[in-house]
Amino acid sequence: MIYWWAFQARCFISQDDSKSILRLFLYSNQIIMELGTSILGFVTIALCFLPFLWMGNARKKKEKKLLNNLRSLADQQSCTITDFDLGPDLAIGIDAENGWVFFYKKKEDALIQESLSFSSIKKCRIHSQKRNVKIKNSSKTVIDQLELVFEPAEESAGRKRWEMYNADENFQLNGELQLTQKWEALINESL
Questions:
Q1: Same domain flag for 36 and 87
Q2: 94 with 80: CB under 8 angstroms?
Q3: Are 84 and 95 in contact (CB under 8 A)?
Q4: How far is CA 49 from CA 14, 55, 159, 179, in A?
Q5: For residue range 115-139, what is the model confidence (pLDDT) as tens digits?
Q6: Are residues 126 and 144 in contact, defined by beta-carbon separation less than 8 angstroms?
Q7: How confident is the model at residue 20, as a pLDDT?
Q8: Structural domain for 135, as ranges
Q9: For 26-40, 42-56, 71-85, 151-165, which range has the lowest pLDDT when averaged over its residues?
Q10: 183 lies in the same domain as 93
């Protein structure tokens, strides 16, 4: 198309004018092509980042919902959450002033909402189910389940177990081991 236009311009316009018009046409055509390429590049980059922004917003919404549910659980005991942590599908918090610990976990088939008073707890410990897996020439230990186990202050009351991780629900650990260790220490210090 450029060649046809240049040919027509040479037929009807003098030699000097045709060169300047042709230069002007080629320059404006180059700017339009560069603008189109730039727009296409910006749209492609935006489309690449859009899923990450969407996932970040979805994660923030999920965390906010978990925290709100944990706070509403604390409100039932007239408590205020002073420290909390959020996991992939759980929230755990403490009211150190009033002596309560709260746990909220949403599973696919169940919703777990529990609260315990420090006066009903003698000790908190971690219970983990592990198994050994052979990989080539070595053996690795795999954690299948992590729980916070609360020993009751009264012998007649049963132990409470809060499941922090289960390999059947989540494929791999995502900070649950560190979270469980932190909360075991925090609860035992507060008792």
A1: no
A2: no
A3: no
A4: 52, 10, 47, 30
A5: 999 888 889 999 999 888 888 888 8
A6: no
A7: 60
A8: 79-190
A9: 26-40
A10: yes
Average pLDDT estimate for 42-69: 89
Q: Which residues pair with 121 in a beta bridge?
A: 152
- What value, to the nearest 5°, has the Cα angle with vertex 95 and ends 123 and 91? 85
Which position has the token pair 């002033």?
Answer: 97
User: At residue 165, does pLDDT exceed 50?
Assistant: yes
Count of domains for the chain: 2
Contacts of 141 (CB under 8 A, 6+ apart): 130, 131, 132, 133
* 99 and 138 fall within a common domain: yes
Q: DSSP secondary structure string, 110-155? A: -EEEEEEEGGGEEEEEEEEEEEEEEETTEEEEEEEEEEEEEEESST
- Length in residues, the chain: 191
122: number of CA atoms within 13 Å, CB side?
10
Relative to beta strand 121-135, strand 90-95 is unpaired
| pLDDT of res. 182 | 92
Asked whether the whole model's pTM tops 0.85, one would answer no
Query: Same domain, yes or no, for 120 and 131?
Result: yes
Contacts of 144 (CB under 8 A, 6+ apart): 129, 130, 131, 166, 167, 168
Give the pLDDT band (50/70/90) at residue 68. very high
